[in-house]
Amino acid sequence: MLNRITRPLVAAAAVLTAGAALAIDITGAGATFPYPVLSQWSTDYSASTGVKVNYQSIGSGGGIAQIKAATVDFGASDKPLPPDELAQSGLAQFPIVMGGVVPVINIEGVAPGKLRLTGPVLADIFLGKIQKWNDPAIAGLNPDLKVGDAAISVVHRSDGSGTTFNFANYLSKVSEEWKSKVGEGTSIQWPVGVGGKGNEGVAAYVKQIKNSIGYVELAYALQNKMSYTAMKNRAGSFVEPSPESFAAAAASADWASSKDFFLVITDAPGAASWPIAASSFVLMYKQPKDPVHTKTALDFFKWALEKGQPQARSLDYVPLPDPLVKQIEAYWASTIK
Amino acid sequence: MTVASTAPTTDSAESLPTRDRSAAETRQDNLFRWVLFGAATLVLVVLGAAALSMLWGGRLAFQTFGWHFIVSDEWDPVGHHFGAFVPIYGTLASSAIAMVIAVPVSFGIALFLTEIAPGWLQAPIAAAIELLAGIPSIIYGMWGLFSFVPFMADHVLPWINDHFGPLPWIGVLFRGPPLGIGMLTAGIVLGIMVIPFISSVMRDVFRTVPAALKESAYALGSTTWEVVWKVVLPYTRSAVVGGIFLGLGRALGETMAVTFVLGNAHQLSASLLAPGNSIAATIANEFTEADSDIYLSSLIALGFLLFVVTLIVLAIARLMLSNLARREGR
């Protein structure tokens, strides 16, 4: 009698727990930059495996805070953490996807890629030292381009952002004055200009303010059909922003000798490299409290890095180059238990 | 604020004979009184808790920078130097512009609706005002950015530059590159946003003016202008000021619409055409990526300062009201 009641109950319980084990939900939080591709990957991955990835794009700072408080399975940040800070919290770090920051301009009659700038000149514009578009420093780089004596209006991000971090990091690398006066960070004290909220805010301001210059992620420049500049890279050649030049920067960056992938790939070497390329990082515990969740999350990232390139490309991201993916998988095997 | 005097006092209820009341009814009544008391105290508790928790969250900033936090115009997240002067100034200046625009227009709307408009026109205009009040602020922000900013940049600001820029003294307020984004644009958008709040309060209080008063004035040969200025306004003065400050309170704390058109630049500029920043916009923009304790604390301290600024403004309003009342010998 007792058996007749308990047996179905046990069976039901077994089915329930098995179901729960199958449908693990991973949660992550952090940077807004990788949100579109993470959510696309999550949709496709759950269609084939049933594993859902809930990602909250609360910002890099929030992502770092949440993973340190262990409320999420992974955090995401546009700004890599230095190895000693990672070691303190027992965190591992690896890049997940790449993109790039593009200076965009609104000067009548200047087509995309026709205006050439160098890093130091770009820094001087954003420092407010170069105030006119016909400044000798700009004219010297563009002998064939006719630009009037209009005043330059600088547009920057008003919200804290990984885009700003990578842009300011690049300017710090190429301009001593920028480094000492302004520095780098997700928010910085801008010497001049107006601030737009988000990539879309900067894009809208640049489109509306004549003779302005701003910086956005490539996807926003392309979608809004904005005019971007060509930049001189470390190797001395002028390159235009494109998935190819971003990939070249990602490939030429010296990942092999970086500890915990602590590397900002701005000002990368290589003749074809875009100088303001950027990568987004994921943070996870080396010795997780919940190994099952971490294992599931790593399976998801493995799938994303190996099979998720088409989704990344269609959203104007740059997938990681193969050697880097191999290096990341070796890193997982050696550090995350 | 005018309702309090008309509420019945509890003394009279207690002095009633309790003989014909059952104990259960008395208990019920007591319970009811406590519930009401609780509801009223809840407001005070929430307000106090919000202020205290912001003060607590911002203590690091206040300790580190002291008075410097309020008077310094530096806002450097990299070097960790924070001063709130630019956002405080921006909040006050944009709200002041909003009031300069919203108060006269609201007067016009409310007076037109109560004194002049024919009956068939009153309902549609009143409904339109209420609809305007229901539009989310993000929509005002988008409209401001995509429609109003280009209009200001191409047509209004160059004209202001040419005509007001050369003036002595006040000219400095109206000089600068016509970006379209800045304090003046933000103030105008804010003004449009608070018009529905102020005008609907004004309309409601203008309606309370006894018809006998107005009719007497008209019978003595007053013009509409005289009736409005000498009868309607004096009768409703305190409620009108209350309505204005309701709108001002909203303008001070408005976030989304302002951040789209203000320019969000931590730079102090005398010109109203230049970009600036406001307290609420700074918090909304920078909170998510505030990556150090002192940065986060400074943003929370900004929130506390907005609280204080609003409190001071409301206190001034109260003071003005009581001065008015005293002068009238009430």
Summarize the structure.
Chain A is α/β, with parallel strands linked by helices.
Could you please describe the fold and organization of this structure?
- The complex is a heterodimer of chains A (337) and B (330).
- Chain A is α/β, with parallel strands linked by helices and 337 residues long.
- In chain A, 45% of the residues lie in helices and 19% in strands.
- Chain A is built from 14 helices and 12 strands.
- Chain A has helices spanning 2-22, 35-49, 60-68, 83-89, 119-127, 136-141, 162-174, 176-181, 198-208, 218-223, 243-252, 291-307, 309-314, 322-335, and strands at 25-30, 52-56, 74-77, 91-106, 116-117, 153-157, 194-196, 212-217, 227-228, 230-232, 238-239, 277-285.
- In chain A, helix 5 (119-127) packs across helix 7 (162-174) and helix 12 packs antiparallel against helix 14.
- The radius of gyration of chain A is 23 Å and the shape is elongated.
- Chain B is mostly helical and 330 residues long.
- Helix content of chain B is 73%, strand content 1%.
- Chain B has 13 helices and 2 strands, in the order ααααββααααααααα.
- Chain B has helices at residues 10-14, 23-57, 59-65, 68-71, 85-116, 119-134, 137-164, 183-207, 211-219, 224-253, 256-261, 279-286, 293-327, and strands at residues 75-76, 81-82.
- In chain B, strands 1-2 form a two-stranded antiparallel sheet.
- In chain B, strand 1 (75-76) and strand 2 form a beta hairpin.
- Chain B starts with 9 loop residues before the first helix and ends with a helix.
- At the A-B interface, helix 3, strand 7 and helix 9 of A face strand 1, helix 7 and helix 12 of B.
Distance linking N and C termini of chain A? 47 Å
Helix content of chain B: over 70%
Strand content of chain B: under 5%
* Number of extended strands of chain B: 2
Largest sheet descriptor of chain B: 2 strands, antiparallel
Listing every helix as H and every strand as E from the N terminus to the C terminus, the arrangement of chain A reads HEHEHEHEEHHEHHEHEHEEEHEHHH
